Every structure is written in C-alpha cells, then in structure tokens.
C-alpha cells in the first residue's frame, strides 16, 4: 500500500520499538557493539505455566502439521490470557535466530499489541508507516542485528514483503481472520517455508470478540491522536453504561456452541485441487470460519500477489474468470475446492454447511439472475418481511412497489434486505436505485440513532458513490423522502458533491452521521484525510457502500475507483451480518466486477439488459459485412446446418419472417417459423430444442424473449433493427445460462450491409465500452459512410477533422468538420524533424498518446509557473509584461500569429477558426500544442521581431494508441497518471527523452514509443496501467488520404 496515499491510516513508530530501532541503528555503525545481549533474556512471566504450555488451563491448544509447517490454534479464555500466552511463547524463542512477526487486522490493534507486549517485557518494533528509517530497521531485524518482535497490520504486509527477502520463522496471527486474508499473510511472509517454521493462530471466543469490537469504537489516544482498542475491562464498562452500545458496534448472531467448534485440519497437497475459489459463507458462521493454510506449491499463478501501487489496485492481481465460479461435482471448503472422492472424513456439520452445487441461475420476469445461493422473489414491497412497517408505509406513500415491484426489484429487495450484496445492470428508469435504497435507509433508521450515545463515534453508516453533483442531489432527495423528519441531533444525509465542500463535510463526519453521498474523487479526498488530525470513518459502523452508475463512474475515474475498492475491501467484511456492497449501472464493467466476485460470497447479479448478460456470460461474436447480404446469410445457414447446430434467425417482423422462410425453402434449407407466441408455439420451440434434426428456426424478434426451452448454438440477426430490439434478441441465450455459463455460451452472428451506419456505430460503441476492439469491417463501414455524407454536404471552408488527422479516420457519430485533404496540406513543414532519433524536453503531456515537446537544441532558459521557457520564450514574456507593448487585435485573420496570455504566460498562438468576435479558436505554437476558444479582445498583435520565428513546440503522437471510446477522449485520471508518474511533471524538470520518428503528417509527428534516460518506455507504462488498444492501420489510412488530396488554389 502506498504510504503517501494512506497516511491517514498509519502511525509513527513509538515506545519500546523506537528505542530498539535507535539502538540497532547505532550498532550498525559501531561494529564492536554487534554482540549485545538479547533484550529480553531475563524477562519474567506474569502467570504460572503448566506442563502443557497453557496458563492455568485457560487456553485450548491444538496443533497440526501441513507441508512441514506446524500450525498451532489457541483459544484463550480472555484477551489478557491470550496476550499472556503469546508472551510466554515468545520468551521461549531465541531472538538471535528466530524472526518473529505478529500480524493484526488493524493498525490500532497493532498499536495495542505493542503496548501490551511491552508491559510483559517483550521488545517489539511497530511497523505501520512506510519510511526510510523503518525500512532500515526492518533490514537490520532481518539480518539479526535487531532482536525484537515485528508487529504489523494487514495494510503494511505488501510493503513489508517488497523491502527484501524477509525471513520469518514464527508467524503469529493475533486474531483469526477471513480465509483469503489468512492465505495472503502466509503467501507474503513465508512464501517458501524453511524447516522449523511455525504459525500460531489466536482465536477468540464469541463473547470476548463482542467486547473487543465494542471497544474498537472508543476515542483516540491523546499522544498519537489515533484510534486504539480499549482493554476488556474498559469495554465492559462501556457496555454496562449503555445497553445499546454493543448492538451499535457489532451485530453477531452466532450459536452458543461456536466456541467449541474445532479448527479445520490442514489439508495435504495431494488432496487440494484448486485454490481460492469463492465459497458460500454461512450466515451464522461467516465471522469465525475455520481457516486452512494453503500449501504454496498449489497456489495458482493467477492468484499470487503482484506489485500494487496507488494507481493499480487489487483489480490486477485478483481477476479470475466468472465462468470458473460455476464448478460442478465439487465441495467448497473455505477457499479450497476438493474432489469428492479425495475428501477426507470431515464432521457432518462441516460437510452440510460447505457443500454446494453449481451457482443458481433464474430466468423470470424477463430478466436473468445469477447467484451462488438460492434466491426468492417478492412481487411487492409488502411481501418483503425484512422491511419494517414504517418503511413499507413510506414506500406506499411514494407509490414505490406497493402493488407491483419493478422486475429487478423482485429479486433485489429480499436479497438486500436479508443482508446480501448485489449488482444490478440494466437500462435507464427500471428501478435500479430503488432496488438498494430501501435497505440502505432502513440501516439508517434502525442502527444510526444509537450511535449518538457514544461521543467518540464518528463517520457515516452508509456511503453512496454517485456520478456527479446533479445525480447526487437527486439521490439525496430520495433518501430524505424515505428517512422522513429531519433530526436535529444527527445529520441524516451528508453531501460531498462539489469541490469546495470538503472542509465542511470533514467537520460533519467527526460525529456520527447517516448517509454520505459523494463523487468518487471527493470520496478519495475524504479517505486520504481520514486520521490526519482525527478519524472521520468508523469501519465498524459502516454497513453499506453503494456505487450508483458504475459505468459512468468507472469511465470517469478508474484510478479513484480502484483506490476506494481497495480501501473498503481492506477495512470491511462484505458478508451477511456485516457490510453490504451495492453496484448498479447501465453496463457490465468486467474489469471492475470480476475482482469483486470472489470477495462477495453472497453476491446477487441481476441483468435487465440481455446483451449485458451475454457479455457477462462470455458470448462469442462473428461479424460479416457484405453487399450480397442474402447470399452470405444463406451460406452461413447452410454451413451451420451441416454442422448440426441449433441456429435461430431473428427477424424484425412477420413480413421478414415470411420472406426469409421462402428464401430458405428455395435453397432447400429446412426451417421452422414462429411468428407469434402462445402455448402451441412454445411447445413447438421446446420440441425443436430436443430434436436431432437441426432445422433453422426463423423467429420474429417480439417473440424471442418469451420462448422457453433448451440451448441454442447460433443467433443470426437478419436486417436492421432499432438498438433496444436488437439487444432484446439476446434474451434467447438465457436458457443457455441456466445450464451453467461456462458450458453453453453461444455465438451471435452479426451480418451487416455496407450502408448501415447507425447499427455499425452503435455496435462499435458497445464493444469499446466493454474494452473490446470493434471489428475492422465495421470501422470501415463508418469511414465509407462518412465519405458519402461529406459528398452530400460540401464543407470546403471547414477545418480538417482532428480525429482524422490523428488516426486516419473519424468514428464520431456526428462530425461537422472536413474529412478530405487539400493538396497544399500534404506538404511537409519547414524546419520540421524528419525520420530518425530525436532528443527533446517535454513541455506538457496532453494525454497518453499526445505529448508537446521541444528539441534539446532549444535550451531551457528558466521555468515560469512550472512551464519551461526557451530563450525566445523568455524574451517574449519580458517584452509583453510591459503594458506599453499591448496593442489589441482589431481584425483577426485566419492562420495569422498573435500573442495570448495563457495561465499568466504570454505565448504565441495561431488562429485556426473564426466563428465570431467572441469565439475564435487558436492553437499554441511554443509552450504547448493545445487549442483554446478566446474572444477577439484577448488577442494581442505579435511584434514583428517575434512573428517569423519558427514554432518551438512539436506535437508527438504514439501511433495508433487509442482509448476505449468512440470519441477517442482519454479520461482525466489516465492523463494525470502519465503526466505525474511517467514524465514526472512538474516534480522533475529538464529531463531528456528520446523517440524515433516514423512519419510526419501536417504538424503531427508519429513515433512508436518514447523513452526516458533510464530506458523506461511510455508504451509499456500505458499498457500496464491504462485500458487501451493499438490501431495498426493509422499510417496506411493517412497515406490513402494524402494520395486522394483535392487540388486547391490556396497556398500554405
């Protein structure tokens, strides 16, 4: 975890750990002091130890061996007894040879362990912040020069493993955590266990854990201003002072015999088939699921941890195919899938709670639903027993789902109300927000009011991440309508939607509040401020996190989303009885949702959009563009029939169905026609699915979503259909998914005529939004149709389209610029660099594919507001700083050179287009390559001594580097990432970069890559961190436009 971005979650080193660190640093300089005695050689115990190693018999100790590692599970009678037992074990170790690490879940828990072990005369080094001093101490500890116990929290494990080859002989889990976190600790700290490696797991009885969780809410210590865990006695006093505190802090519904459940025996390598598959965690056992240490040799490569920086979240190292979630003939057991014939004898209770079949799929109400657990549907809000009478009455007054719920709400309401997480994907205005809002507001009604009794509590109970301020205000109004009367003692809705509201929101969040509604960038700001002066988030009180409009949120701020997801997955448990995650949106975001699938064992997926459900299931596509439309279609159908495949031919209406059926009959292609839906045709469809004779099924599109039967292999789309109807045709694949999404994905065959611009554009847009490169044949359709449109509307005086100029084609839906070249535009620029290697300074990074550079021959004289100025630019700036040299432009001319003040810097610009005196488009010439819209009175006449100087800024383009959208606009987080992380602007100035020019076109210079002085290249950086694709046809398309340039009488 990056230290800079998480400073609010960390504390400086202190106490005994600081003294030991200073002592070790001193010993590393004075070699004669290496042989110091162990710090804790003469420590004494605070309690007597019996012959079994237990403190007066108050601990239950069991031992297991797996892959030559000894695992010890200890269940102490109290937290103090556990600390005494831990201190006793540590005293038996030789600190000169044994490297001991104690891992805690949270940083405040680690601070308490440091303090308590110090009371028991155990020297510890607290590692909860990334700094050079701490890293030096860790290296000394690893080399045996510092004889202390390392106390760390989960947030620092990644940093600890990256420091060097850490050698851990004795790993202590201070509390039993979730299986995937347990496994991650083992992977990072003991990736290759040596002989004699031991692992100690301290479990807690249920009543002790409740007290500890209640204690987690108490105030920060005055000296560190951080949250600490109170002792058991303090927690008990808090509980006695208010009967509501324990229920406010944590809700635990666990059977009383849970304490007596033995830990699951570690499983040998020979019996482990696969690792880290998602499991269904039982509602009553989810907190205390027994963990199995996973042998390193059997960990899949895809699940091994990889480097995670602040811009590349857990999405990279946790992605796995959703199709692998459907595993038949297996028993799921806490992250390990065991073959039935290889499973050793387990207890009946464990087998009954962990055994699970394939995920559940439902095709009802015209929607597709997927879950790992069995689901129920409710027809109205009154049918949801978990909704309180007040909530039902509020929904009735607003006419929300009282008589009949929306389709997606019939599955979503009961699942969310029972404590599960969910993702809903569908079109606009289908009730997605109302699917999670009642449950979220009910949390505020029932669980937030008791929090005001605790003056040390703080932060929201629920968080809603929205797209922008407008949608955030709309959601806030809905929440206020549900919550009812405004409370004077509690802020029920807190909005962090504008740029200048952060300070006010922070003050509000220092006390308990209800719902925080924030944009993703503002939520990141609040998260980074957490704990700097005082904590503003309380993870124990945070019950719901919702992303409303995830497709727009992800496209606008992918990096911010990754930071938030990493944070909430670190501090929250998304299980029934703990926290819930709600995701709703228009599109299925594969790279966002797949990493979450394994972290949410009870997630429900609801698809109202049939095409999005097909993308989730991994459908295949075949594309074809042909003038001989019917002929190509007949060839496809004949080929599939010979392959004995089930083929459905979807038509726009009954007229097309009849005409196509006749055409098939003339070619002797056996077919079956369905033009309407009733019981007879539905049975006909089922019989067709079971038949061995593969006749082509010709169906009208308005009947497709009603057909229920078996699986199909190919869906062929005939004729142009409006986009909503085209997407609805994919609902016929719902029957495939019921058999398991990995078994019958199916294939969609899209056949198109060369003049079908609208359908081609919509499909290309759809593919790009799902990070898939659209078919080249469809892009060609867009280009050729654009040429036809331009021929119908003459635009000789319009500027050249910039997208065409950069990529050799224009794929916008509507474009009013010129899409052909004049002959004078094909001439190369004077004094422009030709092919070969160039060295340059970077003036600015416009986007990942575009960089403004200045050749090193134009040396930098000075920096003005982080902008490098050459000697020419410096003279220009000094000249126009005097008000005497400010002659105003009275009659602007196209392509003429003027002076404009941009960001307090006077620069030369060229006029590109004149629409009116108040709207003139200009382009930078020396200090950048960007365009601006200005007024005439902002332009200054350029002095003659500056006017004829050649341009200093060159526009470098990475050939074919493209973002995943039809406008080819890079998101802001991608621009900032390249600017600050690769070019390091403005932190490191005057750096020299190199590039090899492939070709020039107008004022653009295309290169394959850009390299810094260390050999790092921009292409690899973008490929690693930013979704993109490479268009390989840019050069050939531009050459074609040059060869087809039109003659003109105008000169350069």
Automatic annotation (TrEMBL):
<keyword id="KW-0378">Hydrolase</keyword>
<keyword id="KW-0067">ATP-binding</keyword>
<feature type="region of interest" description="Disordered">
    <location>
        <begin position="212"/>
        <end position="242"/>
    </location>
</feature>
<dbReference type="InterPro" id="IPR027417">
    <property type="entry name" value="P-loop_NTPase"/>
</dbReference>
<keyword id="KW-0547">Nucleotide-binding</keyword>
<keyword id="KW-0677">Repeat</keyword>
<protein>
    <recommendedName>
        <fullName>RNA helicase</fullName>
        <ecNumber>3.6.4.13</ecNumber>
    </recommendedName>
</protein>
<dbReference type="GO" id="GO:0004386">
    <property type="term" value="F:helicase activity"/>
</dbReference>
<feature type="compositionally biased region" description="Polar residues">
    <location>
        <begin position="224"/>
        <end position="236"/>
    </location>
</feature>
<keyword id="KW-0347">Helicase</keyword>
